[in-house]
Each structure stands twice: as C-alpha cells, then as structure tokens.
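Step 1: inspect the first sequence and its tokens.
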Amino acid sequence: IAGTTFAQQTVNQITLTALNDVIGHSKDLRDNAKESRTALINLGKEYFQLNNTNPNTSAFSTIINNNLGEAYDIFSDIWSDLQYGAQANPNIETANIQNWARQAEEDYEEAVDEVPTLIAQLQAGNRSAARTTYILIRTKLNNIIQLSNAIRTDARDQKTTALVYNVRVILQDGYGNFYDVANTGIQGLVAQDLNSGQFIYPDNYGEQDEFLNLSAGTYWFSGYDGYFDGISSTQMVIDENTPVGSDGFITVIVGYWSE
C-alpha cells in the first residue's frame, strides 16, 4: 500500500511541478514579447508622432533579435517540461499548449523577419509602407502575448483536471459493521466513470479493493455478489475537494449484506 500511495503522490507532484514550470515559462514569454512590443512602440512614436526621420532603429533591432533568442529557450523549456509531465501522467493534455507554443514561435520569427524591411522603409522615409510593416510586427507580438496567456490558462486549469486519485472500497452492512472485500464472498469490485461510461477494475498491482490513479470525475462503485452475500452500489464525486486519508486513499463505503 505504501508503494502505491507513494507512486500516486509522485505522479501528482510531477504533474504540479511540470505545469507550474510551464506557467512560469508562459509568463517569461509574455514579458519577453511585451518588451519587444514596447521597443517597437517607442520606435513608432519617434518616427510617426515626433517626426524623427532618424529614429534609433539599432536599439530596437538589438532588443527584438536578442529576445527572439531568449524566446527559443523558453519554447524549448515549455515543450520539455510538458513532455516530462505527460510521461508521468497521461492525463496531461499537451496538444493545445504545443500548438500555441509552435504558433507563437512562428509569429516571433515572422516578426523579426520583418524588422530589416521596417528599418529600410523608415530610412527611406516611406511612411505609408513603414506603417503597414509596423502594424504587421505589432500584430505578431500581440498574438504572442495572447498565446502565452492561453498557455498559462490551460496549464493552470490542468493543475486540477490532470491530477489522479487512489480509492479504497470498504463494505458496510445494515448494522454498521465494516468488512474488507478480501474477507467476504464478493467476487470482485467494479467502478464506472459516469462521464465516459468506461468500466474500471481494481489495479492489477494493488489490492482487490483498490482503484489507482483515477481521474477526477463522478464514479459508480459496485461489485459481483457471492453465493451467500452481496453488494449494493454507491455513486461518488472524486476531485480535489474529496477528503483523502493519511494513507493517500479516498475511502468509498458500499453497502453489503450476507445470509
């Protein structure tokens, strides 16, 4: 029992660590893109509002190119931490975060690719073309900020939905007496995830009354009657608000009768 409890706690610890790291990286990406956007806005103010025909394009170019280099590291960290968590806990959904990170990387590269064009247009005094390119770069940077927020929100939500839970079933008769399943004639237990309809049986590596690594959800617990005794059923919500014992298990009590 101690081994299975430790395993479940380890899965949840890895899950939370990985998702917290992804949240941290998403904040770094957001701050990175905001810094590049601020540098772009300052350049635009110099040229379009203050009519400085020789704005400091070098400073802007240095900032956004350096930030792209830092962003590559952030993207790598997001993918690495996400995969680390998913390997320990298949409940972690990676597709959305991976797609958003990939799109953000493409947007950043496309924004930086437009920088030489913008600088050339500014230096040539082509205000109309420069404004179009300026808006394009700013739109790309805004997209990155929005995508970083989406990554953070998804990872934060999964800190609840991706956790797993261990359940132990205890039988109770009409007189208030408790029984371990192993000490009765019950032929086995079964649970059903009422959301997916999937039937689940006690873990092969645990005891016959233990359901390991269940996702959050509403479950129906029952079993198969013996020759001279039987089992009823009970429905229970399993989530982060369900009390967990000091042994790491949630206790589910199911009715029992015997002749």
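Step 2: inspect the second sequence and its tokens, then contrast the two.
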Amino acid sequence: DLHSFPTRRSSDLHSPVMTSSEVSHSNGLEQYVSHEHLVTLFYDKERADSLAAFSVDLLAKYPDYPYHQAAHGVDVMRSLRLLLTDIIPADSLSLYQKDLLLEAAAAHDAGLAVGPPPYGYSTKEHYAVSFLGEQYEPNSAEYEFMERAILGTIIGPKERVCRDSIEAKLLHHADLGYIWGANNQDFLNYATRFRVEGCSNMSWQEFQELESLFLSNYQDYLENDMRACGVAEEVIKWMLSRVEDNKKLDRKSTRLNSSHP
C-alpha cells in the first residue's frame, strides 16, 4: 500500500490509490472509467478534456473479461501516473510525453479478444496500436512514441520483446502495476481474475507455482528497468519489497488452498 511509499511528492497520493479491484458495484465501475475521472489523470489541463475523451473511446474497445476490461486500462493509467509523478526523475519526460504515455496506456489492450489477432496484425498489441490512428497521424512522432510504449507490453515470446525505450519500460511495468503497487488483497483479487480468464484449466496450486516463477523473474526485470529509468535505489528497493511481499502471500495462499481441496 502507498502509505509505505518512500518519496511521495504528489498531494493526491496521501491515501491509498483506488483500483478497479476495490470497485464492485456497477455505478462505481462506471465512474472509474468515466471522462470525469480520466480527465484528472492528465498533466496538461488545457488538453485534458480532449485526451480523456479519446481515452474513453479507446477503453470502450476493451473486452469485458474478468481481468482484461476497461477498468484494467484505467488501472494501468493510474499505475503509470504513479510512476511518472512519484517514481522516475521529474525531467525524464516532458509533460507532453507523459500525457501521450497515459493515452498509450488507455489504448494498450483496445480490441483484445480471445484467439489470434486480426488478419494483418502480428500481435494483439500491434492491433491495439492501430486504434491510435483515429486521433494521431501514423508515422508521426507522437504515434511512434505511443507505438513503442504499447509494443513494450508484449510479454513474449522472447524474440518479440522490445523495451529499449523509457516509454516501453514504463508502460510495461504500469501494465503489471498490481504486482508492485497494490496491497496484498488487491494482488490476490487480480491474480484470481487472471487465473479465471486465462488459466482456468490449472488447479490453484499449479497457477500459484507458475505465478511464483513469473514473479521471481519479474523482480530482475523490474530492478534493471527502474535503474535504467534513473529511479532512486531506495525506491527500487521499495518496489522490490512489494513484489517480495506478494510472493510470500502467494506461497501462503497456496498452502491454505492445498489444505482445503
């Protein structure tokens, strides 16, 4: 939880961040993905209205799966806002670039569907990028900046992973923000949603073993990428400690579930 965050500079982080995991009723979810909420996330207040309007359009293209849904897009935007405001050095990106990156977060799972990506697109992330063309000129600097960020969220296979830029690194780790930024209960809620959506054929113990392996590997990527982004060592240690806490919770949950079949 954010009460333990070591360098909190932003006034809106004096309370734990609300996430979609905490919003259970339909009115709450509707507000969470609303223009009214999204407009508060952008830095340029003169452009925030139009940026939020396009973000709402992008989120409307998300599926309604247990994990991947419009609220997930907002979760990623909020995790990214935390990275941009309180974690990376303030001068790493311009305010204009930060707003583009928030827009990319809104777009990153647009058009997602079970099965292979639509014909002509090598990955679902490439398909998500295509929706940026509704607002930005393809091949423009803005479009290519957001494209690099979205393609940075590709988890694998290894030959498709490309996170050479700061925007790609940041969006990737915002996409996985529940691992290092959420409290323990939220982490379990997200993990459960993910299992129901994509790993329902696994037992809870099998899923937890797979996730534990992923978390161990993720810690290395997180540490290296945050250091490459110029993040202070004490903040990196805090982020890694959050992942470690959730790994321990994973193991505890596995023991409890295995003792109650």
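Step 3: confirm your contrast with the notes below.
Residues 107 and 254 are 34 Å apart (CA to CA). The longest helix spans residues 233-258.
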